[in-house]
Specification:
Length: about 260
């Protein structure tokens, strides 16, 4: 799978993450990095998700930058030229997902330039970077999770303000309008992020509808089809230094770490 790695610079660590990384980052800027298949939706980021029981690390990329992601993802990056020197990884600190929640980060290209890190039940430690950038207008999982969080802020141990950014319309589709994910979630009568089977179906529908029939509503490629805009947004973000190519050698990694 060829993903786009999105670099979300830390603006303010949560108190517990701050304590865990104290004195360990040096002069480096720290970023949460999310793997996405939909760089053209980055305008609509409203938050970022981590798994609360997933172990993350803060890894040195070089002298200037450090990434928060899973060890597995850092290993992949070290073989893809993102983390240097090749094949070598230096973990500066270990971070439990629960500790990262509440961290404020920059969301590159997003209409809301700063967002918060929130918890999601269904983050897989074995996919991407283990960090998921959230676009509730176009991702059913992100939309449903955001709604769950808003309903039960105490249960999820979050401040209501962290989940307060509303979905932003960024792509229009003929069948579902300007908010594809909320419309599909409603159509499939999805009630919570625990409805994983229906959410998988919703994701499939949203992917197809967005890719084949979507039109950009915002940004430099406004009015263009998603098919045309997708590679252009990706290239622009990579050129701007806020994204990078990230490949996932499916199966291989799993059999290696087993
Ligand atoms: C932003 C985004 C916007 C995404 C959207 C999707 C959609 P796939 O197809 O199964 O490979 N993702 C990335 N890593 C993880 C993880 N570790 N655990 C759970 N979810 C993860 O899935 C790739 C997509 O799943 C990624 O693209 C990411 O969410 C999420 F409008 O990034 B995406 C219809 C989907 N729309």
């Amino acid at each position: 799978q060829e993903y786009t790695g999105i670099k979300m610079e830390v603006v303010e660590w949560s108190p517990s993450a701050k304590a865990a990384i104290e004195g360990k980052v040096g002069e480096r800027k720290a970023f949460l990095v999310a793997a996405t298949l939909r760089p053209e939706t980055m305008y609509g980021q409203t938050n970022c998700f981590v798994g609360t029981s997933i172990k993350y690390g803060l890894f040195a990329v070089n002298d200037k930058e450090a990434f928060v992601c899973t060890l597995r993802a850092a290993r992949n990056m070290a073989f893809q030229g993102t983390i240097t020197p090749r094949g070598h990884i230096e973990q500066l600190a270990e971070l439990d997902g629960a500790k990262i929640v509440g961290t404020r980060i920059k969301a590159p290209y997003a209409i809301n330039p700063e967002v918060y890190v929130l918890p999601m039940d269904n983050v897989l430690a074995t996919k991407g970077t283990g960090v998921v950038t959230s676009v509730p207008s176009d991702s059913p999982d992100d939309y449903q999770t955001l709604m769950d969080l808003r309903k039960k802020t105490e249960f999820y141990k979050i401040e209501p303000a962290w989940a307060s950014i509303d979905p932003v319309p960024v792509i229009s589709t003929p069948t579902y309008g300007d908010m594809t994910a909320p419309a599909i979630v409603k159509q499939l009568k999805i009630q919570s992020q625990k409805d994983t089977k229906q959410l998988a179906e919703a994701k499939e529908i949203a992917y197809k509808e967005g890719f084949y029939n979507g039109t950009m509503l915002v940004g430099e490629y406004k009015g263009e089809s998603v098919q045309d805009a997708k590679p252009k947004v990706r290239e622009a973000m990579i050129k701007a230094g806020v994204a990078f190519a990230y490949a996932e050698p499916e199966g291989l990694v799993i059999s290696r770490s087993a």
